[in-house]
Amino acid sequence: MATAPQYDPDDLTATPAQAKPKRASPPPKPPRACPPDFDAVYIAHGYDDCEVIFRAAPMTVKRWLLERGAERLRKARAEFVARERAARHALKAMKTRKKPPRAVVADGIEVPAPLLSEAANFLRTMRNGGWFCAPTGKGDWWLGTMYKTPAQIVEFAAARGFDLEASLARHRCVVPEEEPLSLEGRGVGERVVGELAPS
What we know:
single chain, mainly alpha, three-stranded antiparallel β-sheet, 5% strand
């Protein structure tokens, strides 16, 4: 009865029956090519962001940088950063710039305080919500988004139904009798110049 040949490990010419042939190793992959938009991304975002955007290793990004011209791209990146910084500083300066003081609206016409208060309350309580009417603290008044003098507040209220003559009589304001009360132009303000009559 034939016996199977024995494997001698010292015999370099013999191979064991169980040994499997080795697979040939695959050829090495070629290096990853530089993306076509690498220059623009590097200039706008810098070295570190290129690793995240392109999902590349630091050595790969370095190789691309050398292939595309490291000195040229670094100079362009520095110029881009300088422009962005200057633009941010200019925008910040515009936001923090103080506005020139607003000129106070004035016409030199004095209006008795009770008459002005009653006219303002009339405008505030008109239908459809009325008008926003309040003093600015500088001598003129807000009327909505407009700036008006006290005399213009009274004229505006009188043009919209405010009983000016009744208010004058109620507050006993002195009005020259020889000149009729007029609602045209600045006539109302000129006739409302009087002080409160002594009680």
